[in-house]
Design goal:
The complex is a heterodimer of chains A (236) and B (263). Chain A is 33% helix and 26% strand. By secondary structure, chain A is an alpha/beta fold. In chain A, strands 6-7-8-3-9-10 form a 6-stranded mixed β-sheet. Chain A has a 4-stranded antiparallel β-sheet with strand order 2-1-4-5, with helices on one face. In chain A, a hairpin with a 2-residue loop joins strand 9 and strand 10. The two termini of chain A are 26 Å apart. Chain B is 83% helix and 0% strand. Chain B has one domain. Chain B is mainly α and 263 residues long. The model of chain B has no long low-confidence stretch (mean pLDDT 87). Chains A and B meet through helix 2 of A and helix 1 and helix 4 of B.
Chain lengths: 236, 263
């Protein structure tokens, strides 16, 4: 479980996040949505400890973030555009992470097979296409059976086949009781996977709850129109 | 400690395979080899090699270091999302970068010398000094490069600053001091000049060599001044201490920025 209370962050005079209160529950998929520059990435980065908040608390499980790093053991993070040392092979990158996490058993290597990464194992990262790098990144995210999954636009660079494999994997991990946070601009994906939606606009949460709730509240026909209504500044 | 070793060994494996390290080694080999085949006077060869290294090694360390961090930005962000402390990651990246550069330097300069080891038989100490200065300069300017790229988001700006720092320290600084001293030649400026030299690691390395070998004429203006002022052992001690200080300071400042940085 992840809990965020009264979180604030500004870069210089620009307020990126204003008084964010949120809770992410195990066994549920929460989508963070909002236009570009709304503060989604900053929120994720604060949870990961990449960005330091100005005020407010973040709890991951029963641990409150204070600059220590061990809690990230529980997190699998798939960044928007993954990048690994260019001159290492895929096998070496997997090995590196196992070494760094000091975790060589209890691994979930199913995605390596399912995403057809077997053939690419001996190639250097620098020689892989963007999509294949993204697949490697996905496989790493699930490798250590993390109880928390944070996926930043995971399907953006993937072909439809890989994208549906990944989505099936996400659903399966949801059944396993993981806490899952996703961002995406693809509404069909959101409709398929999301239990909860958090809508952020200019650093504040405009909506947080179930999808059908959102559609009802904006009195829209469907999710797309509900989103548009929110982006146009309709208050709930 | 264990984690530091793991990170640096994987980074090292990555850097050592890069074609730039290979070009650097080949470049040094060609320079060293052509110097040796031009004259057969070992003292002259070594001093010229040293003078060339004083220019090339800081330049390469600065540029490699700066580009390395910018190119690896997303990789660094990903590693930071793993359970790794920031200072361990920072030092791991640093060690993983400078060890291959040092190795490239040792091979590029060392192999041609080994090839002609007979001419250099009486110059073991000079060769040792030549290799040490190269290593020290890599350590210092690798740290400076890390500091510069962590302080600047924009890669072109970072690279520009690196090149300006190099131009200033390796070329302008010596000339600037020379102009100052010529203009105020009537005043006793030795103390001030000896003090000013400490702010330039390249000059400091130059001085170490000047003091050890009587070759002031070949080593630029500042070297001569420093030698006259400090003379033997005290000069060596002071410049060595200052070089140590320069090895740590930029890296430490970079580490502080890295720990507080929002990625």
């Amino acid at each position: 479980m992840i809990k965020v209370t009264n979180l604030n962050k500004s870069f210089g005079s620009l307020e990126v996040l204003k008084k964010i209160d949120l809770e992410f529950v195990p066994g549920q998929i929460t989508y963070i949505v909002g236009p570009n520059g709304s503060g989604k990435s900053t929120l994720i980065k604060i949870i990961l400890g990449l960005v330091k908040s100005d005020s407010g608390d973040v709890w991951v499980g029963d641990y409150m973030l204070n600059g220590d790093c061990h809690y990230r053991d529980k997190i699998g993070y798939m960044p928007q555009s993954a990048s690994f040392p260019e001159n290492l092979t895929v096998t070496e990158v997997f090995k590196m992470l196992k070494d760094l996490r000091n975790n060589k058993d209890n691994l979930d290597e199913s995605l390596i097979k399912e995403l057809n990464l077997d053939k690419e194992l001996n190639k250097r990262l620098g020689n892989l296409s963007g999509g294949t790098k993204q697949k490697v990144s996905a496989a790493i995210t699930f490798l250590f059976n993390p109880s928390i999954l944070i996926l930043d636009e995971p399907t953006a660079g993937l072909d439809p086949v890989s994208s549906s494999i990944l989505k099936d994997k996400i659903k399966k991990e949801k059944e396993n009781g993981r806490t899952i946070i996703l961002t995406s601009h693809i509404l069909s994906e959101l409709e398929e996977l999301a239990d909860n939606v958090v809508f952020i606009l200019e650093g504040s949460i405009k909506f947080s709850g179930k999808i059908n709730h959102l559609i009802e509240k904006t009195s829209s026909l469907n999710l797309e129109r509900a989103m548009a209504a929110l982006m146009n500044g309709q208050l709930i | 400690m264990n984690l530091l070793f793991k990170i640096s060994s994987y980074q090292l494996r990555d850097v050592i395979r890069s074609k730039w390290i290979f070009f650097y080694t080949i470049l040094l080999m060609i320079i060293s080899y052509s110097l040796i085949s031009l004259t057969k006077e070992p003292a002259k060869i070594l001093i010229t090699m040293l003078n060339i290294n004083l220019i090339i090694v800081p330049l390469i360390s600065l540029i490699f270091g700066t580009i390395f961090l910018y190119n690896n930005k997303n990789n660094i962000i990903f590693l930071l999302s793993q359970p790794i402390k920031r200072n361990v990651l920072f030092l791991g990246l640093y060690i993983g970068l400078i060890l291959p550069i040092i190795l490239g330097f040792l091979l590029g300069v060392g192999i041609p010398i080994l090839f002609y080891v007979k001419i250099f038989s009486n110059y073991a100490e000079t060769i040792f000094l030549l290799l040490t200065t190269g290593i020290v300069l890599t350590i210092i300017f690798g740290g400076v490069a890390f500091y510069i790229s962590i302080s600047n988001e924009d890669r072109m700006k970072g690279l520009g600053i690196s090149i300006i720092v190099w131009l200033f320290l390796s070329i302008f600084y010596d000339g600037l001091l020379l102009i100052i001293f010529q203009t105020f030649a009537d005043y006793p400026l030795e103390k001030i000049s000896a003090f000013l030299i400490m702010f330039n690691p390249i000059d400091l390395t130059r001085i170490l060599v000047v003091i050890n070998f009587d070759v002031s004429a070949l080593m630029g203006y500042t070297g001569t001044v420093f030698k006259n002022f400090f003379g033997g052992n005290l000069g060596v001690l002071i410049s060595a201490l200052m070089l140590m200080f320069w090895s740590i300071l930029p890296l430490y400042l970079g580490l502080r920025k890295f720990k507080a940085k929002d990625f």
